[in-house]
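Bit of a strange request maybe. I'm writing a small parser for structure token strings and I need a real example to test against, not something I typed by hand. Could someone generate the tokens for this chain?
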Amino acid sequence: MAQARRSLTLTQAERKGLLRVLRSQTEAGVALRATIVLLSAQGLSAASISRALGVTPRTVHGCPVPTRNSMAASLGASRRARRA
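Reply from user aminoacidic:
Good idea to test on real output. This should exercise your parser:
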């Protein structure tokens, strides 16, 4: 069964922050999550994002959806911390 695509809207400040993360020298996982959030905010489906980035749809679905108050925290969350 296909999942309904969640709508994600970013403020200009949030978009700039995510782009800044991508340009900085951060660990690859944080940059990947930032890219997933940016593509999701553009309306791409998980399948499209996974194809574009060369990752599995499970990786895209596993990306934490940031809230307004926890954008940086959710992007920096380790995989182990999300499982707890």
